[in-house]
Design goal:
Chain lengths: ~200, ~200
């Protein structure tokens, strides 16, 4: 098989991305070949920009262009409400919901004894340090409702309670647009237990 | 919603690629952020390489790093058998099959009166010119078996016949691994008509 080397290199690199197989990689590479040079340059620059322009916010460990991220710097946000999340993706997901105007703390993972993730591997020390400098009224634990997320939630709740702030967790229940019939029994059970007054 | 600009730019650019929506684009961008800088650089360079290192072969219009592509230059290929295809993708597909050792001619499209594609828009003039300099024994028409591909096949067959070379087309039939039950009747009809002796 004789394929021009720059093409096979690009296919190789694209197929290292998650969810991109060789066939999709080839389609993407040929799309770029056939498109204007400008597009290839903009795409390549945006990829480089991801590594050169972004770092982690020193306070909350969200992605940022400067020492502090735009959320930590903003005076339009409520700096007394802290939302603890596992990962940067979760900050984006919550920001998209447009319901939260507090600040974040990105743990960078969840406790997982089986995979050897201990509290020292997460930004928990840094979280506790924030209580010295910041004045929180409520801590929202927004970790995924799986075993590891639950473990981490309980661990953090115990750790934070002594600071005398309100500690909450995001609600678990039937998702909007969901169907009772096709919802698993644990979720239905939690949704019943956590029912709210109308 | 507050997302760091380099991230939103990369998501924007990635989502311009075919089959990549905003969610996938975000996943790809965050994968790159979390991966080593080397990977981002290799990916970006390979994208730039697609536009700077590749051009079209002057003879067959396949992708090439030099004036002539590696297939046209190779003396291991049979330069008397010419395979006419619609697009660069088709060269790759045929090369992968490892059954063809001749040379190619990429038309750059198929005739389509409805979309206004006329013979002048395709590399047909260039194809006819090759008959002056090269000594073909067989021309294989390997266009897609759809209406436009068929039209183009018939048009080219008529055009090439006067040169006195053998003109063939690739077989249409049941694909390997296919199922008669689920094959459309036109394909089954063609497969019966084009049955071969055992």
């Amino acid at each position: 098989m004789q394929i021009a080397e720059p093409l096979s290199i690009a296919i190789e690199e694209f197929s290292k991305l998650p969810g991109i197989g060789k066939k999709t990689a080839q389609r993407l590479a040929l799309f770029i070949v056939k498109n204007e040079t400008n597009f290839a340059e903009r795409l390549a620059n945006s990829i480089i920009g991801l590594k050169t322009k972004l770092k982690l916010c020193e306070r909350c460990f969200n992605l940022s262009e400067e020492q502090l991220c735009s959320i930590c710097k903003s005076n339009k946000r409520d700096h007394t409400t802290l939302c603890i999340v596992e990962d940067i993706n979760d900050v984006i997901a919550i920001e998209k919901a447009n319901e939260f105007d507090g600040v974040y703390h990105v743990l960078g993972g969840v406790l997982s004894p089986l995979s050897g993730v201990t509290p020292d591997d997460l930004k928990i020390k840094e979280l506790l340090k924030r209580f010295e400098n910041e004045n929180f009224k409520e801590i929202i634990l927004a970790l995924n409702p799986d075993t590891e997320g639950e473990t981490t939630t309980l661990y953090l709740a115990k750790l934070i309670k002594p600071f005398g702030v309100k500690v909450t967790r995001i609600a678990r229940g039937i998702p909007i647009g969901g169907d009772l019939e096709f919802t698993d029994e644990v979720t239905i059970g939690k949704a019943l237990l956590n029912r709210i007054d109308l």
